[in-house]
Write a structure and sequence with these properties.
The protein contains 14 helices and 24 strands. The chain has 417 residues and is α/β, with parallel strands linked by helices. It has two domains: 203 residues, UDP-n-acetylglucosamine1-carboxyvinyl-transferase, Chain, CATH 3.65.10.10; 207 residues, Enolpyruvate transferase domain (UDP-n-acetylglucosamine1-carboxyvinyl-transferase, Chain), CATH 3.65.10. The strands form six sheets. It has a four-stranded mixed beta sheet. Strands 2-15-17-16 form a four-stranded mixed beta sheet. The longest helix is centred in the middle third of the chain and has 13 residues.
């Protein structure tokens, strides 16, 4: 099994180009199932989750080619309606094929999803909302067996709680529903905005009518589409935290700074010096790191996917900080590993209390999920000595060329087999 060796401390200096967004690419790839015309997608990141979704689409009958970094997806002959456990087990986004398959065929059998073990991610919000569009379903042996005997029928749906995945699934499904669908209490992450923009370009009829409310008028055909996926805001945020943690100086390119304004504002409060331009962010990490209390929340709040990374930075703050995790109930699994490196972090329910003034010590570490993995890399980068990070297959699910990008800006990091 592969592992990472990090020899620290490293002050990161240079330029990092941010890849396309994994979390935007996955629902967009699922949405291509709606079309029987060619779809050309650019800026998909080379990460394991994208490879898994591509293989899932191929298993459903999609014809997919790659030509000069552009994915050409042809679903003209796509006719399969079964998404197997083998392809969905490592990635929760696999459930996103349920909506388009029901919209297109009125029937689907999709495995319940897997992914990181960071808490329960019930699909009941997806299924409850789909049932209001006329879907009947039952769960048998780990699969959702769903069918819409009269096709999908548009209606008004208010989500019981804000859910990114359910919002994406229902937006995709509703584009082919008969009549008008109004979805309210929607998640409004930038990746959902990107999905909506893609669907509009494909010929679907969607419009935001309030902050968390979208109107969808059903269509029955799409057009050939060219689309470039947005930048990965979590990757951008990770490298910003890396600069702040290592007292580095980085230029982060291929970004839209206003999309990650919350993260930039938090880093400024903690003490980083940040200047933004149209498509880049310049950051200088300072020695004196200030404490802060923050909580994760749906966009435009602070993202749960950056909670582990910011925790590493706050370990080095001058006083106590508190992070409240309001999205997932099991997302502090990195805490035990950071404490093994010398951090003083205690857990009280959904709060992590970080004492600060940590002098990290190198150690052999175990990654537990995607974002926890990269938080251990950040800690190791700022630590004197050699750290080993095991189970880095989690990292490969969501970060494109992590070691290559970090090496380019001065990190002493290598992959071991």
């Amino acid at each position: 099994m592969q592992k990472l060796e990090v020899l620290g401390p490293n002050k990161l200096r240079g330029i990092i180009d941010v890849s396309g967004s994994k979390n935007a690419s996955l629902p967009i790839l699922a949405a291509t199932l709606l079309s029987n015309k060619k779809v050309y997608l650019k800026n998909l990141p080379k990460v394991k989750d994208i490879e898994t979704m591509i293989n899932l689409l191929k298993s459903l009958g999609s014809k997919i080619q790659i030509n000069k970094k552009k994915f050409i997806i042809n679903n003209y002959y796509q006719n399969k309606k079964f998404a197997s456990y083998n392809l969905v087990k490592t990635m929760r986004a696999g459930i996103l094929v349920l909506g388009p398959l029901l919209a297109k065929f009125g029937i689907a059998k999709v495995s319940l999803p897997g992914g990181c073990a960071i808490g329960s991610r019930p699909v009941d919000i997806h299924l409850e909302a789909l049932s209001k569009l006329g879907v009947k379903y039952e769960i048998k042996q780990g699969y959702v067996h769903a069918y819409a005997p009269r096709g999908l029928i548009g209606c008004k749906i208010k989500f019981s709680k804000i859910s990114v995945g359910a919002t994406e699934n229902l937006i995709i499904a509703s584009t082919f529903a008969k009549g008008t669908t109004i979805l309210s209490n929607c998640a409004i992450e930038p990746e959902i905005e990107d999905l909506v923009n893609f669907l509009i370009k494909m010929g679907c009829n969607l419009s935001w009518i309030a902050k968390r409310k979208i109107k969808i008028i059903g269509v029955n055909q799409t057009r050939e589409t060219n689309y470039s996926v947005m930048f990965d805001r979590i990757e951008a945020g990770t490298y910003l935290v890396a600069a702040a943690t290592t007292e580095g100086k980085l230029k982060i390119r291929n970004v839209i700074p206003k999309v990650i304004k919350t993260e930039i504002d938090v880093l400024k409060k903690i003490g980083a010096q940040i200047k933004t331009k149209k498509n880049e962010i310049n950051i200088i990490g300072k020695k004196n790191i200030k404490n802060i209390n923050l909580k994760t929340s749906p966009y435009p709040g602070f993202p749960t996917d950056l909670q582990a990374q910011i925790m590493v930075l706050l370990c080095k703050a001058n006083k106590k900080s508190i992070i409240k995790e309001d999205i997932f109930e099991n997302r502090f699994m990195h805490v035990a590993e950071l404490n093994r490196m010398g951090a003083k972090i205690s857990i009280d329910g959904n709060k992590a209390i970080i004492e600060g003034n940590t002098k990290f010590a190198a150690a052999e570490l175990m990654a537990t999920d995607l974002r926890a993995s990269v938080s251990l890399v950040l800690a190791a980068l700022s630590t004197k000595g050699k750290s080993i990070i095991n189970r880095i297959y989690h990292l490969d699910r969501g970060y494109e060329n992590l070691e290559k990008k970090l090496k380019k800006v001065g990190a002493k990091i290598k992959r071991l087999n």
